[in-house]
Structure formats: C-alpha cells, structure tokens
Amino acid sequence: MDGLVPSGSVPRFLVDATGWDLAILAVGVTTVALAILGLTGRGWGIGATFVALAIALPTVPVVFDLPWPSLPFAALAIAVAAYVLSTHVKLPASQLSILTIVAVICCGTGLTGSLASRGATLAALTVLSIGTLTGGLLGASTARRATGWLLSSATVTGLVTATAFAADLPTGRLPYGIVAVAALFLALASARTPLTGPATWAAEASGHLVALAAVATATAVSVKTVATTISTPAIVLVIYGALLGLLAVRAAPDDDADRLLTSKRWYTAGSITAAFAAYWLLLADARVSVIEVYTVPFALATLLAGWLELRRRPTLSSWTAYGPGLCLLLLPPLAQILLTEDEPLRRLGLGVASIAILLLGTRQRFQAPVVVATIMLVVQTGYEITLLWTLVPSWLPLAIGGVLLLTLGATFEKRRRDLRRLAGAITDMR
Fold first, then answer.
1. Does residue 89 sit within a domain?
2. What is the model's pTM?
3. Same domain? 75 vs 176
4. Cα–Cα nearest to 207, from 235, 247, 167
C-alpha cells in the first residue's frame, strides 16, 4: 500500500467519456462563465474567470489522456493561484468571496485526489505550504497575512507529518519535527518589524499552536508506544521552553515598551513553566516519590518572581508577592505529614522552615510570611500533641491542659491586651 488505497487499484480517471465530449463540455462551461461575466459587468471578471477555470481545467487531463495525478494537480494549481491572487491583489469583497470558495473546493479536491500515493501527497502539501507561506509573508493586507500564517502553519505541519510517515521514521521522532516547525514560525515572527501588530501576533500564535501540537503528539506517542518513554514529551517541553526564553530576551522597540515588557514577563513565566513541567515528567519517569523534589524548586522560583516584582513595585502586597510561593512550599509537605505516619525528617524540616519564614517575615514586617508560617506551626504543633498523647499516661495531658487554663484565666485581661497588640501589629504589616 503506497497511499490511502492499495497500489495498482487507483484508476486513471473515473470519467468514461471521449475527448470530444469533454472538450464540448469545457467550451460550454466557459461560454456560460463568459455570459455571467457579460451580465454582471467587469467587476466580476476575475471571479468568473476562476470559476470557469475551476470547471474547465480539470477536464484537460482527461481530454489529452494525461496520467494520474495530473487531475488533482490541476485542481491544486487552480486553488493555489486563486489563493495567491486573493492575498496579493486588492479586490472587492465579492470577488474575494468567490476566489476563497474556488480555492477551498479545488484544494479539497486536489488534496484528496493526491492521497493515493506518498509522492503525490508530499508534492501537494509542498505546493500548498509554499502558497500559504507566500500569503503570510507577502499578503496585501494585515488580515490576509494573518490568515496566511495560520494556514501555512497547518500545511507545513502536515507536510512534516506526511514526510515522517513516508520515510517510515519511528513515531517517537515525529514530535521533534513538529516542534522544529514551531521554531521556524516563531523565528519568522521574531524577524518581522515591528514586533507588534495582528500579522506578527498571528505568526507567533501559529508557532505556539504548532508547539502545543508537538507536546500533544509526544504525549500521545509516549502513552501509545511502549518503546517510547515519557522523556519524549519532556524533551519537547524543554525545546519549547527554550524558544519562549529566546522570545523573552528579543529586542523591543521603544514605541511600545510597556506592552512588550508585559509580553516578556509572560514569555518568561511560560518558559519556566515548560521547564518545570519537563522536570516533573523526568522525575515521574525515574519513579521519584519524594513530593518535595517536585514542589520545592517551583516554589522557590515563584518566591523569586514575587521578590523581583516586589522590588519593582514596593507598594505590592506581600500576599500577592509571596502568598502563592509560600503555600506551594509549605502545604504539600504538611498534607503529606497529616496523611501518612512515621515522617520524622519531614516534620522536622517543615518545622524549621516555618520558624525561619516566621522570623524573616517578622523582621521584614511582611504579613503573608508571618500568617502562613504561624498557621503551619499551630497545625504542626497540634499534630505533634496528638502523637504525644498516645505515648504518655492519659491523665498527663489533662493535667497540663488544666494548668494552662488556670494560668490563662488568671491573666486573661493581660493576654487579651497582648492579643490586641499582636493583631494590630499584624494588621500594620504589608
């Protein structure tokens, strides 16, 4: 089997007619198209011409008994010509609609007809890729260039995929080819000047969509193929993260610095996220079960990002800057402690970390570290007391609790004033 159907079963043509019959049909169709042109005026000339070509030109291979795949290639030639003309020439909306319809119908017909063999499929996708890339690079308007970028990303990705299957490459290699297409489109978008505008955004969006398709393909391949490990999507994520990092450090024009500074932050965050996702996949592939190995590096990166943002905006709340990182740092080990037993090292490490965070937060007068660390210490202290309860005589905790209640009752007013001062001090923190 060379394509979608068995070799040797592809008919030359599905039309049983003589050359004269088809020639007469072509002449009749052309006459009708010219009649429509005469009735509607010159403004419809290009659209009527392509309608006539779309109907008459596919009959030429049959009339002259040309071998397959001349018929689907004739349809593809009409589709590419109609698309290139619609993207490079300023035409009325009515003619653009006609050319779009002709291009879509002829493209579908030609591409479907070329799927019967590998060579024809690759040739068809190559022609379509060149045509759509031309529209993205040289389109007459912003909307047409943006459309060209989106279409070309699909055709080039299809070409790479078809090439991989035609060359009988291992399925684990396909995601690398797709992510290379993403790198190509992101590079082309970065080479555009200016770096803003719908066309450039469409080029970048095409690259990101193709990169996500590469990640999805790598994940599907790793799940379906036993021979391919989970390292394949991890490597693809590392490549995508590197591409995002390169986008974050590219030069920015002075006329739109604020917007590009925001985009740099998003690209940096995306690059870090992709890197950590790859890191987690590699840990899972290595069967690492220690939860802190997964969470602590990402939590530290989140805290570092919050510290940098707090330096840039001194009025920023500590909850916004440090809250997510602290929760990510302390909550997973606390949950592990509460759900499992015999975790002395984890309990000791969490207690030391909570005390250190509490002291640092108190010194810097940051509300989020003080509150989060205090809650962690209270919960952990309660957990340790419940463990201690089972190791001592049952009357001892009751006696200690009674002594504490008597002490608190005797100094209730003083303790209430202390609590008010503590609440005021915490409220005054940033």
1. yes
2. 0.71
3. no
4. 247
Asked if residue 62 lies in contact with residue 15, where contact means CB atoms within 8 angstroms, the answer is yes
Q: Do residues 125 and 23 both lie within one domain?
A: yes
Tally of domains in the chain: 2
d(C-alpha 38, C-alpha 49), whole Å:
12
Cis peptide before 233 (omega within 30 of 0): no
Task: Confirm if 162 and 122 have CB atoms less than 8 A apart.
Answer: yes
What range defines the domain where residue 208 resides? Answer: 169-288
Tell me whether residue 129 is in a domain: yes
pLDDT tens-place string over residues 228-247: 567 889 899 999 999 988 88
Domain end residue (candidates: 161, 188, 221): 161
Residues 124, 403: Cα–Cα separation, whole Å: 88
For residue 412, with 0-12 CB atoms within 10 Å meaning exposed, 13-18 middle and 19 or more buried, which class applies? exposed
- Same domain as 10, residue 108: yes
Alpha-carbon Rg for the chain in angstroms: 34
Statement to judge: residues 94 and 41 lie in one domain: yes
What the block records as the tokens of 400 is 């200690």
Cβ atoms within 10 Å, residue 97: 13
Model pLDDT for residues 337-374, shown as the tens digit of each residue: 888 776 788 888 999 999 999 999 888 888 889 889 99
Please state, in angstroms and rounded to a whole number, the distance separating the CA atoms of residues 267 and 259: 12
The identity of residue 331, as a single letter, is L
| Together in a domain, 43 and 151 | yes
| Residue 346 Cα distances to 77, 206, 349, angstroms | 68, 45, 5
Would residue 177 count as lying in a domain?
yes
Q: Token pair of 95, please?
A: 């003619």
